[in-house]
Amino acid sequence: MPETASLRTRREFLRSSLLGAGTACSMPGFVAGTIAALQHQADGRPAPATGPDSRILVVVQLAGGNDGLNTVVPFADDAYHRARGPLALPARSVLKLDDTTGLAPALTGLRALYDLGEAAIVEGVGYPNPNRSHFRSTEIWQCATDADAHSGTGWLGRYFDHACAGAPNPTIGISLSDQAPQAFRALHHPGIAMSSPEMYRWIHGRDSALEEAFAALNAPETGEPDGSGASIDMLAGSPSASDPPSENPLAFLERTALNAQLSSAQVRAITAKAGASEAAYPAGGRLAQSLRLVARMIAGGLPARVYYVSHGGFDTHHNQGGERGTHQNLLRQFDEALTAFVTDLKNKGLFDQVALMTFSEFGRRVHPNGSRGTDHGTAAPVFVVGGRVRGGRYGHAPSLTDLDRGDLRHSVDFRSVYASLLREWLDTPPGSVLGRDFPVLPLIG
Amino acid sequence: MLEPAPADDWSIEDAAHLLNRAGFGGPPDTLREWHSLGRTAAVARLLKGPEAAGAPALPRWFDPDAYRTRITTQLEERRKLQASGEAEAREEARQLQRRHAMKDRQQATEAAGWWLDRLFTTPAPLVEKMTLFWHGHFATSIAKVKDPYLMLQQNELFRRHALGNVRALTREVVRDPAMMIYLDTHRSTRRHPNENFARELMELFTLGEGRYSEDDVMAAARAFTGLRINRPLGRAFFHRPSWDPGTKEFLGRSGRFQADDIVDILFAEEACAPFLARKIAAFFISDAPSDALVTAIAAEFRRHDFEVAPVLHTVFRSTEFYRPEYRRSRIKSPVQFVVQSRHALELDSLPRALQLGILQLLGQSLFQPPNVAGWDGGRAWITTHTLLARYNIAGYLVKGPASGFRPPLVHHRKAPAANNRDGRERLARQLARRAVADVAALAPPALRQDRHSLLAALELRLFQETLDETARRPFLEYLEQQGDGPPGPETVASLLHLMMSSPRYQLC
After folding, report:
1. Helix (H, G, I), strand (E, B) or coil at A88
2. A98: burial class by Cβ within 10 Å (0-12, 13-18, 19+)?
3. Could you tell me which chain A residue has the CA closest to the CA of B362?
4. Min distance B143 CA to chain A CA atoms (Å)
5. Percent residues over pLDDT 70 in chain B
6. What's the ipTM?
7. Is the pLDDT of residue A131 over 60?
8. Mind listing the pLDDT tens digit for each residue in B112-151?
9. A364 CB contacts (<8 Å, ≥6 apart)?
C-alpha cells in the first residue's frame, strides 16, 4: 500500500499535502506522486498514462467559421474563381499541394509540416443537414451530436468521464480560457479552465488557521459528520456519484471548489519548474501565448490528456480580403503560433506525444455576400498535426458545381475525425464517446 | 400556479430573495426597509418604472450634437484623404483612424463603468435588472459595432422598454443601429439579402431553434432589406429602393412583408410566449424551470399581450416565486457578484477600473457578450478558475491591495494611470482607500462581543440567511482559534473573506 493509504478523507488529504504545496511549490514530485498513487489506489483501474508515453491531444478552435475554400484552395477550378471573384486567391499565390489544390499563402509553416509528413489535411469535413447558426453548429461540433439532437455533455467531457472512471484526475483536460468550452461539459470530470497558472490559487496571506478553515469550507464532508470512512474515490467525483443534472447548484459548486484546490496545487507545482530551452513564440497574440503555456505543461508532465485553445475572429461577413486582409492575417497568426509550438515540442523531444487538431464550426458560403465577405456555410477542412500523425490528404475536396442550396457538400463526417483520434490516439472505443461508430481514418501512423 | 402569496406571510428573507432576484440585493438596512413595506408595496415599488433621481450622469460625449459633429468630421477626413490618393495621405488616414479607434475604446470603457455604477446606485433596481436581461437577450457586442455612442443608445432603448411591451421593443431592436451593425442588416440588399439578423431573430430572440425553416430565414431576410443607418444621426431609416418588394412566404403566410410584419407574425406564433417565458423564468426564478412554470408564465405573457410589467407583477407576488427550493439556487452572474458584493460590503465608491477588471476576469464584460446568444449563465459562470478568481476578488474587496491579490484594472483614461509612476502610486492610494470595506463599521465593537451574534449578522449580510450549526462551524472554529477576547477588525476582515470564499456565497 502506498503511504497515501492513511489519507482517509478529502479534508485530511488536502490538509496534509496539497495545501502544503500551495505555499511551497518546490515539491512537485511529491504532489505528482500523491496524485498518481491515489489514481492507482482507486479500484484497480489503470490511471490515465502520464509520463513519457502519454498521448496528448491539443484542440485548436478557429472560432467564427473559417473560410475553408480560402484555406485549402481549389486554385485550378474555374468555378472557384467565378464564384469568389475578388475574394479568390490567385494560383500564383497559393502553396500548391498538387495541380489543383493549394494551401493559403499564409500557411507556410503548415506546408512545411505537410512536406515532412507530419500534417494531415482532411478536406470536406462537416455533417448531414448542416446548421448555419454559430451557436448551434458550434454546439454540434462540441457535443458531437447529429444536427437535430442535443446533449448536455461535450465529446471531450464524455471522453474525460470515460478516462477518469474510478481514477479521478481534475486536470484531465485544460482549457486556456476563462470559460470552459462546451466540449468539456461532463457528467463528472469536466477538466479545468484557466487563463494563467499564477492566478490559479486562493490568495489569503499567510494565516494557517484561515487556510484550514478554507479547506474545510471548500471540501465539505458531505453526509459524514466527522469525515471518518470517506473513501478516496470521492476525491474529485461528485460526492454521491449522483447524476449532475439533478445535482443542486450548491453541490456543483462544492465539487468545483474541491477540484480547484486539488488542481491548483498541481498546476502551480508543475509550471513552476518549466521554462528552460523554450522556442521563440511570436510576441503578442493569445493563441501563441496559450500554446506556449500548453508546451510548458506538457513538458512539466501534467497529467492532462487534452488541451484546448481558441483563435477567434473568423466570422468574416464583410471585408474578408483575398490574398491579403483579414482572413489571411488570421491564418498567419495561426500558422506562426503552430510553427513555434511544433518547434518547441520538437526541441523538447515531445512532438511524438502530441497530436493537434483544428476545427471550426463551419466554412463559408461559396459565393460572397454584398459586403465583400462571406456568410455562414458548411463543410471545411480540418488539420491534424503531430510527430506520429500520418501526414497526407484525407477526404475529398467538395465540388463547387454540385452544391446543396449554394453550399458545399461534406465528404467526411467530423465525428470520423474524432473517432480516429479517440481510437488511434487516445485508446478509447469511439462508440463510448460518440454513441455509435463512424469510419476511422488512418490519421495516426 | 402563480397564485398570489398571502400578504402577511412575508419575512425579511423573503424581502432579501425578492431584492436579490429583482435587483442586486442590498445591505441589511435596505433589506429591513423593503421588508417593512410589506410584499404588495415592495413589488409595486419595484415595478414603478424608471427614476432618474440618483442615477450617475451620462458620459458627456453621449450627446446627439457632439456625435453628429464627430461622425461628420470623421467622414470628411476620410473623404479628403481618399481623394488625394497619395501615400502620405494614406498614412495620415491610418493615423487618424487609429486615434478614433482609441477614443472609441476609451468611451466604451466609460460606458460600461457608467452602467455598473448605475446598477449599484439605482433607486429602480428592477429596471436595471431587466435592462441587463435585454442586453443578454438581444446581445450586441462593441467588439463588432465599435461605436460606444450606438451601444449606449441601445442601452437606453433597453432601459426605456425594460418593463414595457416585448413586441414593441423587438420592433425597435430591428432598427436599432447597434444591432443592425452587429448582425449586418445595414448591409443587406435586395440583391444580396444578409440572413444573419433574420436567423437570430427567430432562433434567439423569439421562437427558438427548430421552429422555422431555412426558407423562413430567407423570406425574413428579404423583408429586412432596405434598412439603412444615417450615421451622423445614429438612426436607421428605410431606403425603399434597397427593399425587396416581392411576395414572401413566411411561416405559412404570404405577403409583401416588411420588417414590422415579420415581428408581428413571430409574436403571433404559438412558440413565442413559451420561449420568452422560459428565459424570464431562468433569469428570475430557476436555472432549470419546470415546464409547468414556463407554461404559467407564457399564459401571463399572452394574457397581457407581451407586456412585461404585469407578468413580473404576478411572478413576484406569487407563492411559487418564494418557494424554499428556489432560494439561493441561482449562481450569481459576475455583474450580480460585483454589485451585490458592493451592497453587502457597503463599498460606495469602488473605482470603476477595478469593477471593470473584475467583470473581465469573471467573464461578463458589459457591452461585450461573447456572441449573439448572450452569456450562457448558470453553471457556465463557474469553473475552477473563475471560482478561485471570485474568492480572490472577495479578499480584495474586503482588504484591498493588502490582500495580496492583483486584480486586472480596466482604465478609460487616455494615458492610463498605471503607465507612469505617479499615476501608479495615486491609483494604489485610491484603491487602498476606496476598495476596502470599512470593517469597523460593518461589525462595530458591540457586535463583536459575542461570536454567534457576530456570525448571525454577517450571515444575513452575505448569505441572507442564518446558517445551521454545521454550516457555521468552519467560521466559528476560525474565530475560536483567534483567542478568547472579541475579534479585532483584522480578524473580522479575514472572516469576511473566508465567508465569501465559499460555494454558498456564489448563490443568490
Report:
1. coil
2. exposed
3. A178
4. 10
5. 96
6. 0.93
7. yes
8. 999 999 999 998 999 999 999 999 999 999 988 999 999 9
9. A65, A66, A67, A68, A69, A316, A374, A375, A376, A377, A380
CA-based end-to-end distance of chain A:
39
Kindly tell me if the per-residue pLDDT of A25 is higher than 80: no
Identify the residue with better confidence: A7 or B241: B241
**Domain finish residue from B327, B354, B386:** B327
Task: Say how far apart CA B73 and CA B65 lie, in whole Å.
Answer: 12
Q: Which residue in chain B is spatially nearest to A253 when comparing CA positions?
A: B503
Q: Could you give all domains of chain A from N- to C-terminal order, each with its CATH number? A: 56-163+183-192+272-434 (3.40.720)
Q: What percent of chain B has pLDDT over 90?
A: 77
Q: Is the confidence at residue A72, as pLDDT, over 90?
A: yes
A-chain residue closest to B332, CA distance? A249
Question: Does A194 reach chain B within 8 Å, measured CB to CB?
Answer: yes
Q: Which of B192, B209, B388 sits opposite A201 (nearest CB)?
A: B388
Last residue of one domain, picked from the residues B327, B356, B391: B327
Measure CB to CB from residue B388 to each of A132, A260, A405 and give the nearest one.
Answer: A260
Terminal alpha carbon distance of chain B: 23
Q: Which helix (H) or strand (E) holds A120?
A: strand A119-126
- pLDDT class of A46 with cuts at 50, 70, 90: very low
Sign of the four-CA dihedral A225, A226, A229, A233: positive
Domain shared by B460 and B322, yes or no: no
B184 to A317: CB separation less than 8 angstroms, yes or no: yes
Count the alpha carbons within 13 Å of A428 in the hemisphere toward its beta carbon.
28
Q: Which helix (H) or strand (E) holds B316?
A: helix B308-317
Q: Do B384 and A218 touch (CB under 8 A)?
A: no
- Collapsing DSSP states into helix, strand and coil, what is residue B409? coil
Taking one residue from A and the other from B, the number of pairs with CB-CB distance under 8 angstroms is 161
- Same domain assignment for residues B318 and B458: no
Between β-strands A102-103 and B248-250, what pairing exists: parallel, antiparallel or unpaired? unpaired
Q: B416: alpha, beta or left, given left = phi > 0 and alpha = psi -120 to 50?
A: beta
Q: How far apart are CA A436 and CA A440, in angstroms?
A: 12
Predicted pLDDT of residue A177 = 83
Residue B340 grid coordinates: 451585490
Residue B24 resides in a domain: yes
Please name the amino acid found at residue B253. R
Range of the domain at B479: 440-506
Ramachandran bin of B341, using left for φ above 0, alpha for ψ from -120 to 50, beta for the remaining angles? alpha
Q: Could you give the percent of chain A with pLDDT greater than 90? A: 57
Is B351 domain-assigned? no
Nine-digit cell at B488?
A: 479585532
Q: What is the mean pLDDT of residues A268-288?
A: 79
- B383 CB neighbours in chain A (<8 A) are 178-180, 190, 192-194, 256
Residues B463, B316 share a domain: no
Residue-level pLDDT at A165: 86
Specify whether B184 is located in the same domain as B321.
yes
Domain count, chain B: 3
pLDDT in tens, B171-227: 999 999 999 999 999 989 999 899 999 999 999 999 999 999 999 999 999 999 999
Is B315 found in the same domain as B191?
A: yes
Nearest residue on chain B to A372, judged by CA atoms?
B187
Quick one: pLDDT at residue B355?
A: 95
B120 lies in some domain: no
Outline where A231-322 has alpha helix (H).
249-271, 286-299
Under the banding of pLDDT at 50, 70 and 90, the label for residue B59 is: very high
Q: Is residue B280 part of a domain?
A: yes
Q: What's the CA gap between B121 and B26, in Å, rounded?
A: 11
Same domain, B323 and B448: no
Backbone phi, then psi, for A280, in 5-degree steps?
-80, 125
Minimal Cα–Cα distance from A116 to chain B, Å?
A: 38
Please state whether A286 falls in left (phi above 0), alpha (psi between -120 and 50) or beta: alpha
